[in-house]
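FAQ: What does a multi-protein file look like?

Like this. Sequence, then tokens, then the next protein.
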Amino acid sequence: MPKYPQLGSLTDAMSAAVFSSLVSRLNTEGETFPLHVGDTWLDPTPTAQMQALLTQEHPDLHRYVAPHGHGPLRRALLERERGAKGAPIKDDQLLVTAGATAGLHCSLSAMLEPQDEVLVLAPHWPLIVGIVRACRGVPVTVDVLDLLEGNASDADAFLDRVERSLSPRTTALYLSSPNNPTGRVLPKSVLEALVAWAARHDLWVISDEVYEHYAFSVDHAHGAQFDPERTVSSYSFSKSYGLAGGRCGYITGPKALIAEAVKVGTHTFYSTPTMTQIAALHALRDGDEWLSEAKAAYRSVGEESAEILGVRPPEGGTFLFLDLGASIERNAADPHATPGLLGVLEACADRGLLLAPGPSFGPYPEMARFCFTCLEPKQTLAGARLLCEILD
């Protein structure tokens, strides 16, 4: 029991800089390429931009709305869920949250007892391990990178990995598709097999689908379609509609879990900012053309970046996951260079380029993530060429 001035140990294992610890080292004398954070160069559809929200049209713009979400947005989301997915979702199965990050926190808080384990398929979104720890759980990384990059349709191989990580404390399975950071999309057969495996072991399933609209070369399957009574799905207007600064997302799931998640949300962020929810509503109503154009643009720049870097093109999402092992090995011959991945990332920062380090995504000390949507395409492709030059 820590006493003043000591602090609790919960945050000891959390990183304060999951995307890059080298921002302060970035050489800003010339053109810079901050390709480490997952964002978009695109502004939202015009009616969803903050300057378009007029108080006279939205008299409640600066007031609280219900903790579970603004009524008009909730109705639009329910209509979308029923129409786009054919899911029999009801009003008490949806919670609007302050970004998908808050939605996942609410979900895990409702699921976990202290020291319960969550199997996290890796490579994974960096913040999920910290969220599990913040909810007093234990993240257990399950490395499936070789499967995603190899025979991704081998459901038995995925099941073997999760089975080996199972313990009496296992409570939930977390997966993301399209995957951040690899750009791979889980085949429907694999997703179905993983959900069925979770059912056999009485586990929750957390299906992170924030990149659902950006599946390029293969179809995206929704986890909840296989077992809606145990699956919580997470979505984000940040990724879908270019509203990252607005912090608006939502989760869907079983009635009992959502009821508890509402309690957690009420006692953390209370309610998602009203103006953000109104912007999200406009994005839903008016953003179909924007979404279609964004998807085409993302796919184009993703494939061009992959060609420049000599890697497999993304199946979805907004990232490439790069193996820097050869550059790390060459760097080791320089006695003045920092060893390991950090030395290569320092060399990039010294040239004005930032990547997200592989260890933020799992056990990947020789990998780095490249975001191909955070800068305009011309600048992104210039960054890819510069990276090739730095990596020789």
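And here is the next protein:
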Amino acid sequence: MIKEKVGKRIKELRHKLNISQEELSFRSCVHRTYIASLEVGKRNISIETLEKIVTALEVSFSEFFNF
């Protein structure tokens, strides 16, 4: 359940910035297919990778987890 919520939040914030998965991949140094898997809740994410993505999405951790 948490994997789906985190993935949905990544996708929501990515759309808010109006960027593609590829652009988020470039900004975060995380492979595009990994981001795609996260967004559909198929992968667990490490804290380090989450930090890269949150930074690339230009939000704080508290804002990210404000579901």
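Q: Is there any per-entry metadata?
A: Some entries carry free-text notes. For the entry above: The chain has five helices and no strands.
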